[in-house]
Amino acid sequence: xxxxxxxVDADTAxxxxxxxxxxxxxxxxxxxxxxxxxxxxxxxxxxxxxxxIPVALAxxxxxxxxVHLVFFLHITTGxxxxxxxxxxxxxxxxxxxxIGGSLWIMAHLNHxxxxxxxxxxxxx
Amino acid sequence: xxxxxxxxxFEDPDRAGPAGGSGQHQPAAERAAGGLLSxxxxxxxxxxxxxxxxxxxxxxxxxxxxxxxxxxxxxxxGRDLFNLTNVAIETACxxxxxxxxxxxxxxxxxxxxxxxHLAMAVTFVLGVAFVSLEAREFAGMVARGAGPTRSAFLSxxxxxxxxxxxxxxxxxxxxxxxMAQVFAKGFRADILRRILCFSLFWHALDIIWVALFTVxxxxxxGQ
Lengths: 124, 223
Prior knowledge:
The structure holds two protein chains of two kinds.
Chain A: H1 22-44, H2 52-72, H3 82-112, H4 116-123
Chain B: H1 3-7, H2 32-35, H3 39-68, H4 78-81, H5 84-109, H6 113-143, H7 152-185, H8 189-222
Helix pairs in contact in B: 3-7, 3-8, 5-6, 5-8, 6-7, 7-8
């Protein structure tokens, strides 16, 4: 069958392998193990500037999640995966709003409110 | 594993899209009646939506944890409590089990029962190792007086990590169910759909663990 015969809008279930084989999982395992090892190494090292460590950890974690999505869950950018990617994008949007919004609001609240012990003293 | 079997040209009756391998056999009913998708696609997509909603629930627990992480009420903080060697072993167990779960789904696709049972059994053993390491860590913390009632930080910690542990435990029960169903009923189309959902669930748990060990353990112990 040539490429042209394929239905353009055919969908794939997430996690459904088409041509993926052992190699895909081996590559995924290797990359994930590498990123994990770097994360654990960098969390305790003094080789890099201290405040940069949490940022590096966040970047490593996000890239490892990408490795898991691509190599284990087989989420791709192909046209058969549009539905899965759109659902994922919506999920990521909600997660970012929830976590980012909570942290933002609570940081402002802590910043703008009097410390609790002072508040208690005023009420007496 | 058994590439010969795959090359022998089995067809997945439930597979939408191009049938891998032998080109001319395209199931006519795959997009029957003007674009209806095969049940496997619909089931997998529906379960994907569930997983994303589960991840949204976890993000609420993550937000709670991030807000409460400094509220230790004079009690122990993450730096006093976390043992990164233990966490590294847990991470290795879960990552390896994700890999063997992938092997099991390849074996299911090629209808290879012995390999399927072997890969699922290894996945189960690694999952049990993960859960028991976590249970031991929790028990040790409670014994040191750092239980969930000690501070807001520890309440959030036990809720977040415990919720993930509960998911893994439920996944282990589901894993045993899938092994029993394949043993009793073989690789029927409905069983294969359940295996697809199980492997999605297991890989998603590993993704949540990546966020968890980074945010809770590495950032908590490192500062």
